[in-house]
Amino acid sequence: MALSGVEIFKLLPKTNCKKCGHPTCLAFAMKLAQRQASLDACPDVSEEAKIKLGEASAPPFRPITFGEGAKAVKMGEETVLFRHEKKFVNPCAIVVAVKDTDSEESIKAVVAALLDSEIDRVGQRLRLDGLLISNESGDPAKLAQAVALVAGQGAEIPLIISTTDSSAADAALGKIPGKRPILYGANDSNAEAMAETAKKHKAILGVSAPSLDALSDLTDKIKAMGVEDMVIDTGARTAGEILRNNTFIRRAAIKKSAKSVGYPIISFAQRDDDMLEALVASLCVSKYSSIVVLSSIEKWKSLALFTLRQNIYTDPQVPMQVEQKIYDIGETNADAPLMITTNFSLTFFIVSGEVENSKVPVRLAVMDSEGLSVLTAWAAGKFTASKIAQFIQESGVENQISKKELIIPGYVAILSGAIEEKLPGWKVIVGPREANALPAFLKTKN
Amino acid sequence: MALAAPAETYPGKVFEVIIGTEKTAVFGGENVLPFHKFDGSVPNRPVIAYEIQDVAPEDWPDTVKNVYGDAASDPVKWAIFCQNELKAEAIALRLIGTHPDRQDRSAEDAAKTVRAVLDAIEVPLIILGSNHVEKDSAVLVAAANAASGCNCIIGKAQEANYKTIAAAAMAQNHKLIAMSELDINLSKQLGILITQMGFDKEKLITDPMCSALGYGIEYTYSVMERIRLAALAQNDAVMQPPMLADIGMYAWKVKESQAAEADLPQWGSLKERGIAWEVVTAGALLLAGAELLIMRHPESVSAVQKFIDEL
């Protein structure tokens, strides 16, 4: 278990020297306990305290960066079991598997699709994160060849090399120096050779064992060989096994400070049935995997998983926001009605969705309200007549429309007079309170 | 070092609910978090009901509407199709045609539809209004009376109309869905108000309000997790009814399940995309604690059933 602020305080110099930037050692200790400060800030701490605190203040799941450069993926660092307690930290990486027995064309096609997988959603760039290349052939040369092929085409893609043969691993890893790949993997019978190979190539070592107990023993053994960065596989393959083992690992690491399982988890969701694979992968995304391996790139499947991952990994305390601007929905012309709402992403999605359902082209002015919904923003003074008037004036939308009419949400009907005062020459129309009444409203308005 | 598997047990338990008469369906009853069979007892699988409507599903996207074709032109035919062809374990009849903005069908008409559907099927029936607060109080009372003795689920009772609907459900011995808007406290408050009327808390189903993948599912997900933790860890009886996820109507309304591939090539095949939207929404909410699901596409239901098999 992590140390409390008072326990940490006992290990500090208690000089209240303020060199750490905090008024007292106790205040610093409290920040350390909340993981909001680093022990490095204290110049006078003893070596003994450093070791004790270092162990205790290390996050329950070791932070590891998979890959190198712009597409590198951060893993680990999770601190809670449920997302309402605190934001989940590093989103589950989504990885697609290929075999070294696949044809060159098919591997190239997967790499191309992977490089092309990036989409934008609510201002975030979402993409498939990496590729797993397995040594299906059993031939070291073939594996190295496939790795070289992939690295040639997509040098930045984080790679997982899947083989239990350390000489095959050595040859393959030699093709991608400095790329921080994952070597998957070590097991009870090859641990020593694999640990050496991983060390030699500075690779992260994927470790698998048939049970949680065996896994815990094996990671301790491998750590003693000098490999610190591991990802772990409990052998779970069915949805039920994945849920069980991932839950036990998360609990053990967070509640019992079990360091031997405090590593990012890799899960395998491949199924012949794509829809079932999407479901098992969603389980991995929601319930504690750091990497999920899929069998294929289907754009619809990726889109659903990206979206779920984004949703699960949002900060429950910070609302999602969309960019402030005037959105054209449908083929707008000068006669298209102009509506305004706030920039809470849900408000935006629901309003724009209902406008689309209405099939009436609309200009939707989305105003920055710090991610609050209409009523909340109004109550907080962020969706007021003067702010709305200022936004509309500065947007220049006036020059694009034939009638100076602005439709406001029914919940802020009270603002209509004040907006008309501040926007001379404009007419304010009160729209419905709920978005689901928009189609009927827009159709009758036309 | 051997890893002590940290199992967790809780003082509380989710109520078990049985619906139907000839053929019944049972859900709830677990004393652990969703599918945490390694911690305790999960006696029942979640139940998935097929959604049908009292009027033709003109607002459903083609990919799901076409599955039903002509059967969807009549609620009785539609219900029989779901029971016999799709092997539905339960059917959810949404009386959407009663909404003033739709066909504004009368409560009497709705009651006739309910009776006709009940006469045609053996599996349990869930009777849903149009979510119009005033209209639902009339429609659901008539529907509850028409379904007397059939052990249905009636819904949804909301804060603004729960009194009449709960009274009718109580008089006719039905189960009742209590819906509040994405807030654990509102959910608890509505549960208290309804039970204070003398309604048996073990006959309630909580709907904390569904949302689709990408459209606020994280809110539903976390409210469900919090409600379930309150039920188990705090042994809070008002939080112990099983939970409903009304998936289909949310998942099939969003852009991702409707936009043509020609317009958004980076989103991939529309047919699979729509199903995936319903399926992933369902999967996430099952893991958050939903025991009763209402869904639309048979391929979605079959994928989710396989997922539950694995869990």
Can you describe this structure?
The complex is a heterodimer of chains A (446) and B (311). Chain A is 39% helix and 16% strand. With 446 residues, chain A is α/β, with parallel strands linked by helices. In chain B, helix 2 (75-85) runs parallel beside helix 3, helix 3 packs across helix 4 and helix 9 packs across helix 10 (298-310). In chain B, strand 7 (175-179), helix 6 (184-196) and strand 8 form a beta-alpha-beta unit. Chain B contains ten helices and ten strands. Helices cover 39% and strands 15% of the residues of chain B. In chain B, the strands form two sheets. In chain B, strands 8-7-6-5-4-3-10-9 form an eight-stranded parallel beta sheet. The chains are: A alpha/beta (446), B alpha/beta (311).
Radius of gyration of chain A: 27 Å
Sheet-strand content of chain B, in percent, reads: 15-25%
- pLDDT < 50 runs, ≥5 residues of chain A: none
Oligomerization status of the protein chains: heterodimer
Shape of chain A: globular
Largest interface: A-B, 59 and 53 residues
Write down the secondary-structure element order of chain B.
EEEHHEHEHEHEHEHEHHEH
Strand content of chain A: 15-25%
**SSE class of chain A:** alpha/beta
CA-based gyration radius of chain B? 19 Å
Alpha-carbon distance between the two ends of chain B: 29 Å
**Total DSSP helices of chain B:** 10
Please, what is the average pLDDT of chain B?
Answer: 96
Give the termini distance of chain A in whole angstroms: 64 Å
Number of strands of chain A: 17
- Provide the helix percentage of chain B: 25-40%
- The chain-level mean pLDDT of chain A equals 92
**What structural category characterises the helix and strand content of chain B?**
alpha/beta
Largest pleated sheet of chain B: 8 strands, parallel
Give the arrangement of secondary structure elements.
The complex is a heterodimer of chains A (446) and B (311).
Chain A lengths: L4 H7 L13 H9 L13 H11 L6 E3 L6 E3 L17 E7 L4 H12 L3 E3 L2 E3 L3 E5 L5 H14 L5 E4 L3 H9 L7 E5 L4 H10 L3 E5 L3 H13 L5 E4 L5 H17 L10 E3 L5 H13 L4 E4 L4 H14 L12 E5 L8 E5 L2 H14 L3 E6 L6 H6 L5 H11 L9 E4 L7 H7 L4 E4 L7 H8 L1
Parallel strand pairs in A: 3-6, 3-12, 6-7, 7-8, 8-9, 9-10, 11-12, 14-15, 16-17
Antiparallel strand pairs in A: 1-2, 4-5, 13-15
Chain B lengths: L15 E4 L5 E4 L18 E7 L8 H7 L6 H11 L4 E5 L12 H14 L4 E4 L4 H14 L6 E5 L4 H10 L3 E5 L4 H13 L7 E4 L9 H16 L10 E3 L1 H5 L18 H19 L1 E6 L2 H13 L1
Parallel strand pairs in B: 3-4, 3-10, 4-5, 5-6, 6-7, 7-8, 9-10
Antiparallel strand pairs in B: 1-2
Helix pairs in contact in B: 2-3, 3-4, 4-5, 7-9, 9-10
